[in-house]
């Protein structure tokens, strides 16, 4: 609606004196309007379906029903603001009207009729702001969805890259992530946090692309120097991911997944709540999967040995709640780690 166009106002009012008072107010204001009058809900629906108004001014009580019934589903090509009027003030009705979707609520009086043009202008400004906010929210949602899709594709490529260089841990990140998701769901993390956890879990070892493959696949115990080099993968992963645009703290989760509750982990020696919950979850699922699976330098230790490690060190190395949830999944709920 441009300023040169008249404001199309649909006035739904069965009292002729009130109709004339409102029409006179718009004439006296100099506001460019096209006021169309309906006296029943049926007439209102027909007029609005034929031409969507910029705003409707509707009496609460009409010969064929109450306006509240019409607020939730306005006819026509799209939604439009509805300004509700009534002959008496009632807080309960006002609340009901606003909840049902009315843009404003006006008690009829000579003063209210005289100032109706200003009330309509204010209502239209508020409506336009609401519509702009809704459009911005939709655009943000669509942008986030596109970003999530792009991140998902990137994560898949990175995951395949690191596992291609380290065949002995092929599937490790995937299995670690499946267990991490199960723990997070049992704890009650919201879906958006679980989605971020899934993304981080699938690439939590991405930093290993910076570690020589002969070290990753060495069929013997690593030397202290070699182990120190492997331990750099958390920081290297952070450096790879830190500039990736994401709604989740992927880089920081990857950075922290080898931190431990008592501060004995690496690379920064974080303690307790200094460690992100997502990283605390991956710390447990990563340990369970690693111990239960084959490694170049040793055969699989088995799931029971892995669970004993978590049980013995819950509250020490591993977050108590996360560890207890993991144990519950396996020992009470029959969770099985994929082969």
Structure, explained:
The protein is an alpha/beta fold and 339 residues long. The chain has 15 helices and 7 strands. It has 2 domains: 7-134, 3-Layer(aba) Sandwich (Rossmann fold); 166-331, Hypothetical protein af1432. The protein is 55% helix and 9% strand.
Write the layout of secondary structure elements.
Layout: E1 7-12, H1 16-29, E2 33-38, H2 41-50, E3 55-59, E4 61-62, E5 65-66, H3 68-71, E6 82-86, H4 91-100, E7 104-107, H5 110-114, H6 116-165, H7 172-187, H8 191-202, H9 213-216, H10 224-230, H11 233-241, H12 250-256, H13 277-292, H14 303-312, H15 320-331
Parallel strand pairs: 1-2, 1-3, 3-6, 6-7
Antiparallel strand pairs: 4-5
Compact summary:
This protein is of the alpha/beta class. It is built from 15 helices and 7 strands.
Could you name the key traits of this structure?
Rossmann fold, two-stranded antiparallel ribbon, Hypothetical protein af1432, 7 strands, single chain, elongated
Mean pLDDT: 90
What spatial form do the alpha-carbon principal axes imply? Answer: elongated
**CATH architecture of the largest domain, please?**
Orthogonal Bundle
The number of strands is 7
Regarding CATH, which class of the largest domain? Mainly Alpha
- Distance linking N and C termini: 63 Å
Order of helices and strands: EHEHEEEHEHEHHHHHHHHHHH
Strand content: 5-15%
Q: Give the helix/strand class.
A: alpha/beta
Estimate nothing, just give the exact number of structural domains: 2
CATH superfamily of the largest domain: Hypothetical protein af1432
Helix content: 40-55%
Oligomer: single chain
Give the number of helices.
15
Biggest beta-sheet profile? 5 strands, parallel
């Amino acid at each position: 609606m441009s300023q040169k166009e008249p404001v199309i106002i649909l006035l739904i009012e069965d009292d002729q004196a009130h109709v004339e008072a409102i029409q006179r107010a718009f004439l006296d204001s100099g506001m460019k309007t096209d006021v169309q009058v309906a006296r029943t809900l049926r007439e209102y629906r027909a007029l609005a379906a034929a031409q969507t108004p910029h705003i409707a001014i509707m009496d609460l009580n009409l010969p064929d029903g109450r306006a509240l019934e019409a607020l939730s589903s306005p006819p026509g090509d799209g939604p439009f603001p509805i300004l509700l009027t009534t002959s008496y003030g009632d807080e309960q009705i006002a609340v009901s009207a606003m909840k049902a979707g009315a843009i404003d609520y006006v008690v009829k009086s000579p003063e209210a009729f005289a100032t109706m043009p200003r009330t309509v202008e204010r209502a239209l400004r508020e409506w336009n702001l609401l519509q702009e906010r809704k459009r911005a929210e939709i655009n943000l949602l669509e942008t986030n969805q596109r970003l999530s899709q792009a991140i998902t594709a990137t994560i898949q490529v990175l995951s395949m890259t690191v596992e291609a260089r380290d065949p002995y841990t092929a599937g490790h990140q995937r299995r670690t992530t499946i267990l991490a998701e199960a723990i997070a769901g049992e704890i009650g993390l919201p879906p958006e946090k679980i989605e971020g956890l899934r993304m981080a879990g699938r690439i939590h070892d991405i930093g290993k692309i910076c570690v020589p493959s002969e070290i990753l696949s060495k069929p013997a115990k690593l030397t202290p120097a070699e182990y120190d080099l492997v331990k750099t993968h958390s920081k290297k992963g952070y450096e790879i991911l830190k500039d990736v645009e994401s709604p989740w703290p992927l880089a920081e989760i990857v950075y922290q997944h080898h931190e431990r509750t008592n501060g004995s982990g690496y690379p920064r020696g974080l303690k307790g709540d200094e460690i992100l919950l997502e990283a605390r979850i991956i710390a447990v699922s990563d340990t369970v999967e690693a111990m239960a699976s084959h490694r170049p330098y040793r055969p699989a230790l088995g799931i029971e040995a892995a669970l004993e490690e978590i049980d013995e060190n819950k509250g020490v190395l591993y977050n108590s709640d996360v560890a207890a949830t993991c144990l519950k999944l396996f020992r009470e709920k029959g969770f099985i780690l994929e082969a």
